Amino acid sequence: MCGRLVITSSALEISEHFGFSNADALTIERTAHFNIAPTSQLLSLRRKGEDTVLEEMHWGMQPLWQSQYEGRAPVINARAETITEKPMFKDLTISGRCVIAVNGYYEWLTTHHAQQKIPYFISAKDMKLINMCALWHTRVIGATAVKEVAIITVAANESLSAVHHRMPAILDNAKIGDWLSGSADHSVQLLKSWSGDPLQLREVSTRVNAVRNNSAENIVPVATQVLPTLFD
């Protein structure tokens, strides 16, 4: 799954990454964040009529038919293999596709019998922005309309599978337009394990396990914390 993110780029840098010519019109202010958890706001790129817009969305999605008072945990990821079948997502593959640009994300290696969970930071070279495919909808809570988003995951590629069996669905910039504006059938075909420039994987401190720890220290490589067992 994909449950923690790192975004160090400013809103202006993200806007320019997506090729906006009128980046000065973007008024959203963002500071570097090294431990973004679900329920945070994520700057998302989506289609709005004939235009493409950037706006903040709430990370974590509830079914539109569910009362906000039922207390169930929000859905933060959607499996690419089932999004065209599940009632919660199938309509969104037609009208609710978006992209979230991040500088990296965390994944946890679970050792034998889950005795240890070791965090790893995954990023592109030089912390360049990564485009994650996502789905969104508008949920009405009382008198407020809230845009909610879930990141799509696929099977991990070979280089990442040693840590976790899933990874976000990632696109290069040239395919963003196809994902946002193509037919649902064509767009879903883009959801594959990443085969572009290799992503960098490094073990980091377990301090990232606590959301309150939010500094560049989170992504500094550390010596291995994996303790051997009789079974590993």
Count of helical segments? 4
* Total beta-strand segments: 13
Shape estimate: globular
- Quaternary organisation: single chain
Give the N-terminus to C-terminus distance in angstroms. Answer: 22 Å
Helix content: under 10%
**Weakly predicted, low-confidence segments:** none
Number of domains: 1
Order of helices and strands: EHEEEEHEEEEEEEHHE
Strand order of the largest sheet: 2-1-7-8-13
Name the average pLDDT: 90
Going by CATH, the architecture would be: Alpha-Beta Complex
Strand content: 25-35%
- The CATH class is Alpha Beta
| Rg (C-alpha, Å) | 18 Å
Keywords: Covalent protein-DNA linkage, DNA damage, DNA-binding, Hydrolase, Lyase, Protease
GO molecular function: lyase activity; peptidase activity; single-stranded DNA binding
InterPro entries: SRAP (IPR003738), SRAP-like (IPR036590)
GO biological process, one term: proteolysis
Could you explain the architecture of this structure?
- The protein has one domain (4-109, 126-201): SOS response associated peptidase-like (hypothetical protein yedk fold, Alpha-Beta Complex).
- The protein has 4 helices and 13 strands.
- It has helices at residues 11-17, 92-95, 176-181, 184-188; strands at residues 4-7, 33-36, 41-48, 51-59, 77-79, 97-102, 104-110, 117-123, 130-141, 144-155, 166-168, 170-171, 200-203.
- The strands form 2 sheets. The protein has a 5-stranded antiparallel sheet with strand order 2-1-7-8-13, with no helix packed on it. Strands 3-4-10-9-6 form a 5-stranded mixed barrel.
- A hairpin with a 2-residue loop joins strand 3 (41-48) and strand 4.
